[in-house]
Amino acid sequence: MTTQRCGWCSNDPLYMAYHDHEWGKANHNEKHLFEMICLEGQQAGLSWITVLKKRDSYREYFFQYAIEEIAQFTNEHLESKLQDAGLIRHIGKLKAIRDNATAWQNMKNQGIDMVNWFWSFVDQQPLINDVPDYKQAPAQTEISQNLSKILKKNGFKFVGPTTCYAFMQAIGMVNDHENNCSYR
User: Fold this and answer.
1) Catalytic residue list contains 134
2) Confidence class of residue 2 from pLDDT cuts 50, 70 and 90?
3) Going by DSSP bridges, is the β-strand pair 127-128/174-175 parallel, antiparallel, or unpaired?
4) Which residues contact 46 (CB under 8 A, 6 or more apart)?
5) Contact by Cβ (8 Å): 119, 28
6) In angstroms, rounded to a whole number, what is the distance separating the alpha carbons of residues 182 and 20?
7) Residue 127 phi, psi dihedral angles, 5° rounding
8) Which parts of the chain are beta strand (E)?
9) Which of 15, 23, 35, 40 is flagged as catalytic?
10) How far apart are CA 159 and CA 139, in angstroms?
11) What is residue 90's three-state secondary structure?
12) Cα 100 to Cα 7: distance, rounded to the nearest angstrom
């Protein structure tokens, strides 16, 4: 039996592993959701494979820590990371990880369960779209526009509607695997 993948997935082993085991799969782990909303923001203007290749460095410098700890990172700490080629060297994007941690904590302090909150945008069930060709999948939707607006209002950075839709795909809120994909 031949494995069929979505047309966007290259033959890079890292990309194939991400496609096969993570993308479009429902995930309800708070730390993973935080990582993905931040990594999707790091992608802005870049290809996803660039972010995937740097993911281990991001995990080492940021996501091994509790969200509360990330919120305490200083500007000096973040600026020191600008010399590291293992990260995307954009101070606004690096500060966004810290700012997103602060915003996440503020929402939690209001009594919001962040995992349930994100998933409430799709009524707690993944949306499975009809995708004959990945080029026909939307870049954003009304849901991702609403999610973006609320996240920005709460202090999140690099969370435009396209980034939010990519996040929804990444954590499986939306399954946009092509109809003929073996991993649909």
Assistant:
1) no
2) confident
3) parallel
4) 88
5) yes
6) 9
7) -85, 125
8) 127-128, 174-175
9) 40
10) 13
11) coil
12) 32
Give me 38's structure tokens.
């931040």
Angle (nearest 5°) at CA 91 between 86 and 94: 60
Cα(first)–Cα(last) distance of the chain, in Å? 16
Whether the CA torsion 32, 37, 39, 43 is positive or negative: it is: positive
Which listed residue (8, 22, 30, 48) is catalytic? Answer: 48
pLDDT per residue over 73-115, tens digit each? Answer: 999 999 999 999 999 999 999 999 999 999 999 999 999 999 9
Q: Which of 15, 18, 23, 58 is the catalytic position? A: 18
Per the annotation, the verdict on 40 as an active-site residue is: yes
CB of 6 closer than 8 Å to CB of 169: no
Chain-centroid distance of CA 173 in Å reads: 11
